[in-house]
Amino acid sequence: MPKIRKLHTKATVAVLSLLYGIFPIVATAQNSYPNKPVTIIVPFAAGGSTDVQARLVAKSLQAITGQPFVVDNKAGAAGAIGARAAASAKADGYTLLFGTTSTVSETVLNKDAGFDIRTDFAPISMISNVPFMMVVSCTSGFKTPGDLIKRAKENPGKLNYASWGYGSTGNIISEMFKLATKTELTHVPYKGESPAAVSVISGETDVAFLSPVQLPQVKAGKLCSIAVTGGKRMSALPDVPTIEQAGVAAVHMPMWSGVMVPAKTPTDVIATLSQALARALKSEELLKTANGMSVEIIGSSPKDFRDQINGDIQTVKELSQKTRLKE
């Protein structure tokens, strides 16, 4: 009998360990954080890549914690309006910022941004790396980046490109493209990625670097992708070359999204969020949807995220000395 009781005790411990291993965030959430809805501020308009990713993450976090994670779009000023709202929110973990590379560039380029990513936020986790498509209207006649470069050099300043604001990722990549190809394209900023896409479709602008969230427009024949950024072709567009394969070098900038909180958020809340996000990013539904958008889900520790931010700040500083990234 003692032997049986010993085995029973081991089995009980094993089961309890398994349960607590599977549900650590839920158990914590029931006793402390989060015990009410959490707002995720997205600093861009609904429908863009950042918004779509944030909603996927919010859904997964809600399933893990049992509390609603609600996306709040606060668009404008290349993401500065939303970031400023998040920076000034109460530092209790109930307001998160779904930031991007644009959050870095606003810190560097906009002295009136109203926030500094280095001092006003605590990074939690990177979410993804996003390749961008170089797109034109399918009626434009541009079949390759070379076609557009040729036209731009023949008509300096006459062609224009769309982005979602000065300092946005679309602006950064486009200015890198101009620098690499020695062309002059006029910048036309919009309030979000989706309006920028519509401007290319309508012919209001000639070209834009857009995220894979605009793939449906490409599949529908409204936009034509003539190249993609990054070191490899997109799985969704296997016939479209990378921009390097198309003969244009030095057009590369890590385009990430990530979750951060106001700087004075308690360390235990940051730890809980970090653990919850690590699990959320393993969601089968999230991974499947992201893969369909050619978005690479990565995740990171708070430290690795901060290192990425500091490196990007230096990159933007150096680029801003060579080209126009602000009004």
- The helix/strand class is alpha/beta
Say which CATH homologous superfamily of the largest domain is assigned: Bordetella uptake gene, domain 1
Strand arrangement across the biggest beta sheet:
2-1-3-10-4-11
Q: Write the element-wise H/E pattern from the N-terminal end onward.
A: HHEHEHEHHEEHEHEHEHEEHHEH
Number of helices: 13
CATH class of the largest domain: Alpha Beta
At CATH level 3, the topology of the largest domain is: D-Maltodextrin-Binding Protein, domain 2
Q: Would you identify the CATH architecture of the largest domain?
A: 3-Layer(aba) Sandwich
Structural descriptors:
single chain, 327 residues, alpha/beta, D-Maltodextrin-Binding Protein, domain 2, 2 domains, six-stranded mixed sheet, five-stranded mixed sheet, 13 helices, globular
Question: How would you concisely characterize the structure shown here?
Answer:
The chain has 327 residues and is an alpha/beta fold.
Written account of the structure:
By secondary structure, the protein is α/β, with parallel strands linked by helices. It folds into two domains: 32-130 and 255-320, Bordetella uptake gene, domain 1 (D-Maltodextrin-Binding Protein, domain 2), CATH 3.40.190.150; 133-228, Periplasmic binding protein-like II (D-Maltodextrin-Binding Protein, domain 2, 3-Layer(aba) Sandwich), CATH 3.40.190.10. It contains 13 helices and eleven strands. Helix 5 packs across helix 13 (302-320). The longest helix is centred in the N-terminal third of the chain and has 21 residues, at 2-22. Residues 1-30 have low confidence and may be disordered.
